[in-house]
Amino acid sequence: MAEPIRVVVTGAAGQIAYSLLYMIARGEVFGKDQPLILHLLDIPPMVGVLEGVVMELADCALPLLRQVVPTTDPLVGFKDVSAAFLVGAMPRKEGMERKDLLSANVKIFKVQGEALDKVAKKEVKVLVVGNPANTNAFVCANYAPSIPRENFSAMTRLDQNRASAQIATKMGVPITSVNNIIIWGNHSSTQYPDAGQGKVLVNGQWKSIVEAVGDNAFLEGAFVETVQKRGAAVIAARKMSSAMSAAKAACDHMHDWWNGTAPGQFVSMGVFSDGSYGSPKDVIFSFPVEIKNKQWKIVGNLPISDFAKSKLILTGNELQEEKNEALSVLDS
Ligand code: NAX
């Protein structure tokens, strides 16, 4: 069996981590033959809860889990890690806009970027889940200059999974019969869920979603809105933000980064923009990507409708604004 790799989850005492740690430790991300040493990072008031999580992980009796390192020190948490799930942040509560969270969270991600820079493996793959995820990933990367920028990403996979689930329900097919739905831009209510390139398996044949659904008003209206507002709908119902589905999406994101995407299929990831599709450069923008040998590549030359173009501009502008706000918080 391979040597164990070190994987850190921040916000390890929180609700997303409660599902995520179990999924990772079962081997669902790095494979059933890859032993793990899990680092659990949280803040000092959560030490007691963290102890409980450590006890439960031990009691799960998981064969791949070789060691658990609970800590409140980022320099211990990030030491020699090959993969980092940055979940820890202040979660959005009912009625709260993501922008309200920005100034509190950019400071956290500066500290974590600096610690990653000092002690993590240089090839570490960093997935930011904590909101505002795109801008937090931007901040984190900027404070970790010795780690390639391509190694920082933000999670929009939950939005992709939500969008795929909407189409699967609409068409009455299993979720595995839907692929290549794109989330463009920010993980916020300006994101653009785009079924325009997507495919659905109907009666044994892959068809374009646009053709199979045959209802453009739905695809440009209710579908987009449902996905954009799904996070808020879960909060309204559960009085807490999405956790189980967020953990599953984080696993999907890192799994595909680690293992690659299937030929002809792409997934959505928030990554440093090169200006593709008219997006602003140097913000973390969600694109369709293909992954090989642990390297993502933005899928190029997809036909984009005028409707989609206008949505991409909107979400790009928001990311540019968030980036400017983050930089001004950090300067002050
Ligand atoms: P919880 O409040 O349950 O847990 C957050 C944990 O982070 C707490 O244990 C807290 O002590 C810890 N924490 C705070 N500051 C920290 C720091 N500096 N270092 C380490 N740990 C720290 O929130 P939870 O529901 O788990 O959500 C976590 C984050 O995920 C939130 O920012 C939330 O908004 C975000 N989400 C992102 C999603 C996405 O698709 N990108 C979807 C789900 C979720 O809303």
From TrEMBL:
<dbReference type="GO" id="GO:0006099">
    <property type="term" value="P:tricarboxylic acid cycle"/>
</dbReference>
<dbReference type="InterPro" id="IPR022383">
    <property type="entry name" value="Lactate/malate_DH_C"/>
</dbReference>
<dbReference type="GO" id="GO:0030060">
    <property type="term" value="F:L-malate dehydrogenase (NAD+) activity"/>
</dbReference>
<feature type="domain" description="Lactate/malate dehydrogenase N-terminal">
    <location>
        <begin position="6"/>
        <end position="152"/>
    </location>
</feature>
<dbReference type="InterPro" id="IPR010945">
    <property type="entry name" value="Malate_DH_type2"/>
</dbReference>
<feature type="binding site">
    <location>
        <position position="105"/>
    </location>
    <ligand>
        <name>NAD(+)</name>
    </ligand>
</feature>
<dbReference type="InterPro" id="IPR036291">
    <property type="entry name" value="NAD(P)-bd_dom_sf"/>
</dbReference>
<feature type="binding site">
    <location>
        <position position="92"/>
    </location>
    <ligand>
        <name>substrate</name>
    </ligand>
</feature>
<keyword id="KW-0520">NAD</keyword>
<dbReference type="Pfam" id="PF00056">
    <property type="entry name" value="Ldh_1_N"/>
</dbReference>
<feature type="domain" description="Lactate/malate dehydrogenase C-terminal">
    <location>
        <begin position="156"/>
        <end position="327"/>
    </location>
</feature>
<dbReference type="InterPro" id="IPR001557">
    <property type="entry name" value="L-lactate/malate_DH"/>
</dbReference>
<dbReference type="Pfam" id="PF02866">
    <property type="entry name" value="Ldh_1_C"/>
</dbReference>
<keyword id="KW-0816">Tricarboxylic acid cycle</keyword>
<feature type="binding site">
    <location>
        <begin position="129"/>
        <end position="131"/>
    </location>
    <ligand>
        <name>NAD(+)</name>
    </ligand>
</feature>
<feature type="binding site">
    <location>
        <position position="131"/>
    </location>
    <ligand>
        <name>substrate</name>
    </ligand>
</feature>
<feature type="active site" description="Proton acceptor">
    <location>
        <position position="187"/>
    </location>
</feature>
<dbReference type="InterPro" id="IPR015955">
    <property type="entry name" value="Lactate_DH/Glyco_Ohase_4_C"/>
</dbReference>
<feature type="binding site">
    <location>
        <position position="162"/>
    </location>
    <ligand>
        <name>substrate</name>
    </ligand>
</feature>
<dbReference type="InterPro" id="IPR011274">
    <property type="entry name" value="Malate_DH_NAD-dep_euk"/>
</dbReference>
<feature type="binding site">
    <location>
        <position position="42"/>
    </location>
    <ligand>
        <name>NAD(+)</name>
    </ligand>
</feature>
<feature type="binding site">
    <location>
        <position position="98"/>
    </location>
    <ligand>
        <name>substrate</name>
    </ligand>
</feature>
<dbReference type="GO" id="GO:0006108">
    <property type="term" value="P:malate metabolic process"/>
</dbReference>
<comment type="similarity">
    <text>Belongs to the LDH/MDH superfamily. MDH type 2 family.</text>
</comment>
<keyword id="KW-0560">Oxidoreductase</keyword>
<protein>
    <recommendedName>
        <fullName>Malate dehydrogenase</fullName>
        <ecNumber>1.1.1.37</ecNumber>
    </recommendedName>
</protein>
<dbReference type="InterPro" id="IPR001252">
    <property type="entry name" value="Malate_DH_AS"/>
</dbReference>
<dbReference type="InterPro" id="IPR001236">
    <property type="entry name" value="Lactate/malate_DH_N"/>
</dbReference>
